[in-house]
Amino acid sequence: MGVRRGGAVRLAVISPFVDRRHGTERVLAEQLERLSTFDGIEIHLYAQRVTGLDVTRSSDTRGRDSGRIIWHKVPALPGPHLLQYFWWFLANSLKRAANRPGQANDEITFSPGINARDADVIAVHIVFHAFYDRAMDQLRLRNAPLSSWPRRLHRRMYYRSIMALEKRIYRDPRVCLLPVSQLVAKQLQQYFGRTDLRVIPNGVSTDQFHPAARTLRRDEARREFGLLPTDLVLLLIGNDWVKKGLRCLLRAVALCGDRSLRLLVAGSDDPAIFASEIADEIKNAVRFLPPREDVLAYYAAADVYVGPSLEDAFGLPILEAMACGLPVIASSFAGASEAIEDGANGLILREPEDAAELASRIKLLASDERLRSSIGARAARTARNYSWEQNAAALQKVLVEVAKTLTAEKQ
What we know:
By secondary structure, the protein is an alpha/beta fold. Helices cover about 40% and strands about 15% of the residues.
């Protein structure tokens, strides 16, 4: 396991899918794109689906040179998410076992999150123990509509299953954990006693996300979404809208009582879950939109980004919005809030379930265009301190160190 002859590191990367529409998967795409340019790393990607990343199918190549990404397609199984997850767990393990070189352990395994029992290095994007404690009220059956019970039960089973895996895997000192924020590092210490952690914060592509790009796209994007020049547009991007704090945001928009407010919610979740929670006075103000790779269009259409997450290890859209020069309201329970100085380059929401606090933050920005502009300008300058190049270099360093350590242990 680890360093092969010639000094190359054979790296097995496991993720159900890789694309640029979802947070964790977008992070992985950015990392792999850069890792593939480094000398001495041979990347084998095990995934069911890959888009937005230059890969070579394993069936299309005989040679396996370092410096490129070879995709080994893992079969998917239709059905409920929990069933898909455990099938993926089994299928990627079997696929990797069949593809290992002569020495069964001649590779290291990198996983964004829990995707296998045998990962050597795990980038931790969420601690489900911490999230479950905060989200339990949203998953209770008591006083919930009967129609919501199957979904709530399914989510509880899914979360509890991952929590059981967290206990087993994250407590193992042989597994190198890379939290994406100090927030996650504290949670890993609290729940699993891990202190041997290296924080590698996510990055942002400032050549793609920057104020000039947002300004250039603004008129086109607002026309696309049917917005008026007088509309003050709030934006939330992400999946699992309960975790992203949408319920609090909907209540806050209603509390604002501002008819010029519009809310765009982009991601892959079921809007029907929130239909009964959208007050009559804001029904025409809320629009649900699908995820898209051209996420810049959403930032271009917006005036304020709002991220009231109940629990978010990082919150990549927060940093991307900052890079675009948008004023941001970020939950203190989002790791990306560590980049924000409250009142200077963004606003911090101390309690993500406090709709009144969030409404007051929204009102402050909605009523003061100059404040929005000054906060956004400082946010863009802050975002330039975070780059994917820095992120990938830090990750490469850890992977090489782990490879050498594991090789030494085998000798």
